[in-house]
Design brief:
single chain; about 210 residues; alpha+beta; Aminopeptidase; 7-stranded mixed beta sheet; about 25% helix; globular; binds coenzyme A
């Protein structure tokens, strides 16, 4: 398969359901309440379609990355990612005037990994940051590789070793290679059993500012 045959598109109404299905495939152990459904993507079509990129091989959805613009105070983040993304009426907190792009999901179909698709998805989303003069791109990274090390390492020791490139994490290492740095660890920000519900708050700063 040649990467040049892949198409990158902003989210459209027709792509909402297959994009939600891709998330179900890529995050099998995340509870449904923490996963996007087609209606959430339909809201993004209305509010900020360019913030969600979908990758297609022909007509098949094989990758996606989504996010919103919002103000962020890294010392006082909402307790959960759902609280960051949605208000009390379950409406998106997307605010075009917000200082940061918050990347809430990234997924590449298992059959298409390791071909640079995530790198291209990051390129698209970083462009959202630079083209709109935002301060940066932040996200909470899952840490799936911790499951193999929890007997010997604390989560903080594990992340230190991933940052030092002594260990490879299938998610965080990819993000570090894409120019992100770890700000701190978050607990119970979302449910992710493979890292005991820990995640890493990561940031890519706009190099133009
Ligand atoms: C994380 C994920 C999106 C990566 O997608 P991908 O398309 O395979 O990633 P890429 O091919 O663009 O790889 C990006 C970089 O990581 C490196 N990389 C990726 N997988 C690797 C592996 N198994 N071993 C070594 N390096 C790897 C690549 O070499 C590349 O670096 P380079 O461009 O400097 O060579 C994909 O594995 C996935 O969907 N995982 C499940 C969902 C998930 O964890 N999402 C992130 C939520 S925070």
């Amino acid at each position: 398969m040649n990467e040049t045959s892949f198409t990158f598109s902003p989210i459209t109404y027709d792509l909402c359901e297959p994009t939600a299905e891709l998330i179900r495939i890529c995050f099998p152990d995340m509870p449904p309440s923490d996963q996007y459904v087609a209606e959430d993507f339909a809201e993004m079509v209305e509010l900020y379609a360019m913030g969600t990129v979908v990758v297609l091989d022909g007509e098949k959805v094989i990758g996606m990355g989504t996010g919103i613009f919002t103000d962020l105070d890294f010392d006082n983040l909402p307790a959960t990612e759902n609280g960051l993304l949605y208000d009390e009426n379950d409406r998106s907190r997307h605010d075009f005037a917000g200082d940061y792009y918050w990347g809430s999901d990234l997924a590449v179909h298992p059959d298409y990994r390791g071909r640079g698709i995530a790198r291209e998805i990051y390129r698209w989303r970083k462009k959202q940051v630079t083209a709109n003069a935002k301060k940066g791109f932040a996200a909470a990274a899952v840490l799936p590789g911790y499951a193999d090390h929890r007997e010997n390492l604390t989560i903080h020791e594990y992340v230190e070793k991933v940052v030092a490139k002594e260990l490879f994490d299938p998610t965080l290492s990819v993000q570090l290679r894409n120019g992100f740095r770890v700000i701190k660890l978050l607990h119970e920000f979302f449910v992710f059993p493979r890292s005991d519900n820990w995640s890493a708050l990561i940031l890519w700063e706009n190099p133009d500012l």
